[in-house]
Amino acid sequence: MNILGIDIGGSGIKGALVDIETGQFASERIRLVTPDPSTPDAVAKVVKTLVEKMAYQGPVGAGFPGVIQHGICFTAANVDEKWINTNAEKMFSEKTGNPFTVINDADAAGLAEVRYGAARDVNGVVLVLTLGTGIGTAIINDGVLLPNLEFGHLKIREKDAEKRASAAVKAKKKLSWKEWAAALEEYLLIMENLFWPDLIIIGGGISRNHAKYFGYLNTRTKIVPAQLYNQAGIIGAAYFASLTHAQSTP
Ligand code: BGC
Description:
Elements: E1 2-8, E2 12-19, E3 24-25, E4 30-33, H1 40-53, E5 60-64, E6 68-69, E7 72-73, H2 88-96, E8 100-104, H3 105-116, E9 125-131, E10 135-141, E11 144-146, E12 155-156, E13 159-160, H4 162-165, H5 167-172, H6 177-195, E14 199-203, E15 222-225, H7 232-248
Parallel strand pairs: 1-5, 5-8, 9-14, 14-15
Antiparallel strand pairs: 1-2, 2-3, 2-4, 6-7, 9-10, 10-11, 12-13
Bound molecules: beta-D-glucopyranose.
């Protein structure tokens, strides 16, 4: 079964058809620019365009960079604040005519890594971090995800961790790999002392460059790059929609 997965990010809205059996893309990936301001209406328009470009009809899974409970968005750190209290599932479904399932973007990436990637068959606690515009966090214990953990907003010297160590901060402050890795390491040491994970998976676009900075990260915990790199968000959202759809289909 192929399902359309969409990853809504602070800078891009990306989508592809995903083969749920294998976790592989079953189409080309389309990337459209996130509108600015990224209001619900403006984002929904881009999502509609993406669905149309795919010429797709059927269930859609979308990852969103905020807390999502039962389809409703409750936080908006890196998107327009009008998202707060918006029923994203209902809005996307109505705008596109396809049934949407919406999940936090880091949770989507975490699910994808568990089902198809670096956390597959890993026993114990896995911490998945997505480093992009913000820092997304997901914790999976023996394959079970605890949703909506927001540890990118953990305070380090009174400032959100994501304002110190996200990929966007590296670009904005023009930090070298070494300088940025020092900020990331500080965050990782705090996280590993709080959660004692068995494995840390680093995702987001910057995970492709892992060879440039993993060497600077001196953590107790083993760290690996996301096996699905930046595609985990799309794949996990599609996978999550397949689970939801399977439950609601008699
Ligand atoms: C948001 C999270 C999101 C993360 C990555 C954070 O600012 O609060 O919900 O998972 O960014 O996009």
